[in-house]
């Protein structure tokens, strides 16, 4: 109107007519029918938020406070991988293959020394023979596996040992670290096998650092010769090569990833300089 006056319409605006959208979803009748068919086994998604469903079982081994001996043996195994291991110690990782080791233990088990009970029976019989003034024929000395590090050292030095077997997991390693060098010097066949518990079982002990065979029966001679030939190929003849081979220097996944990243950056810089 005149004089700059504004007029406002008091008539309310009519809302726009909203057309119903055509639904592309199938009719819910079918869904309802399916749900009613399986009413007992209704699927309910779990909610693992705070204060809701019980958390699932997870592997928490990484967060466990392990006993000290477990931590020590794990740290030792990691250190042996990371550090540069000298050949004298690294040679104990090169053990006899499974098939040959099976043959070796099959032979050793034929020459097990007598148990404490068997020795008791033998001594009783010998005492009874002495008491009755009957000189029982002792017969030839039985062929058995020899054990005990001092005994085996003496057998090697006198070249009486036909085959020496050394455990790979002796701790402290200094007990046997010099044994391969002595065997090589004396020309005695030797092999490094897994492990001290398995060697100990042959001689009725918990563990044994090394075992030796001096001689065997005629029927087992061919088997011994075959084993000696195999171990000589793997150890005595390769001694100089083994003596030069260092072990360890195996880095972890994180270190390898970091080194790879640095190498990539360096390669990029060289390419930039060249280009």
How would you characterize the overall build of this protein?
- The protein is an alpha+beta fold and 275 residues long.
- Helix content is 46%, strand content 7%.
- The protein has helices spanning 28-37, 68-82, 87-90, 98-108, 116-131, 149-157, 179-186, 196-202, 218-236, 239-244, 253-274; strands spanning 84-85, 146-147, 163-167, 190-193, 210-213, 247-248.
- Helix 4 (98-108) packs antiparallel against helix 9.
- The model has no long low-confidence stretch (mean pLDDT 82).
Q: What radius of gyration results from the CA coordinates? A: 40 Å
Low-confidence spans: none
Q: What percentage of amino acids are in beta strands?
A: 5-15%
Strand order of the largest sheet: 2-5-3-4
Specify the number of helices: 11
What letter string, H or E per element, gives the SSE order? HHEHHHEHEHEHEHHEH
In total, the number of strands is 6
Outline: flat
Overall SS class:
alpha+beta
Give average pLDDT, whole number.
82
Summary tags:
275 residues, alpha+beta, four-stranded mixed β-sheet, two-stranded antiparallel sheet, 11 helices, 6 strands, 46% helix, flat
Element layout with pairings:
Blueprint: H1 28-37, H2 68-82, E1 84-85, H3 87-90, H4 98-108, H5 116-131, E2 146-147, H6 149-157, E3 163-167, H7 179-186, E4 190-193, H8 196-202, E5 210-213, H9 218-236, H10 239-244, E6 247-248, H11 253-274
Helix pairs in contact: 4-9
